[in-house]
Amino acid sequence: MLMLISFDFLEENDYYMLKFHSEARKFSSAPFNGGVGRAKAYINRTVNLDYNEEVISETKEFLARNKIEENGTVCTLTAVDVNTHVVAKKYLDTNSLIVYITAGFDNTVSIGNVKGMHGTINIALLTDFPLSDAGVLNLFQTIVESKAQFMNDAHVTDRATGKVGPGTSTDTVSVFVFNDEKTINYAGRITAIGHEASLMVYNSLLKINENNKKAHEMA
User: What's residue 50's pLDDT?
Assistant: First the structure.
């Protein structure tokens, strides 16, 4: 099986990094170097609960301090301990899907509430399927829908309103495609790609939620 996804996984106390061996197509809502383009690395980083910095300048300082190249590095932030991240992998024929997720649910916000707390769900999905831009956006939507479905099924509520929320106020999704061919236009939940990706996201969040409950019970 030939995998086009190749990267080094580096883990420190307050962040982990996926350092790609080749550039990937990037579709990301990350606060630093998000957007659409090319990426060389992805970082998910733990910050303090009272973090109230100007994200761009502070992240640049963080990267410089750790001697990490700024250009092409996508960075997400969370108050969650990133060492508790969950990884899921799935192989479909000759292509693959890899998901890295961290999640904190204290900041769950229902529709209509504009006041958030602390907590973030950061999802990064890597794939070498030859998705077109439209196909990637299909997959992006699939990921968000899966997260919202989990929040509903697990009855994760907004503390302020008591309503179930579709996510937190600071969630991010980043999709990295290690294939420049663009022959697959669809990746919704009823496609093979979307079906597997949705289950990976849903089950990873389920695992994190169960781990959080166990940790609270032991505290």
Answer: 83
Spatial CA neighbour of 89 closest among 167, 184, 196, 208: 196
> Distance from first CA to last CA of the chain, Å, rounded?
45
- Token pair in block for residue 75: 């960075």
Tokens encoding 14: 């307050």
Which of 92, 86, 87 is CA-nearest to residue 196? 92
**Closest residue by Cα to residue 143 from 201, 90, 75:** 201
What's the CATH code, domain 7-218?
A: 3.60.70
Render pLDDT for 53-81 as a digit per residue (tens, 0 to 9). 999 999 999 999 999 999 999 999 998 89
Strand partners, 39: 24
Q: In the chain, where are the structural domains located? A: 7-218
Positive or negative torsion for Cα 26, 117, 198, 6: positive
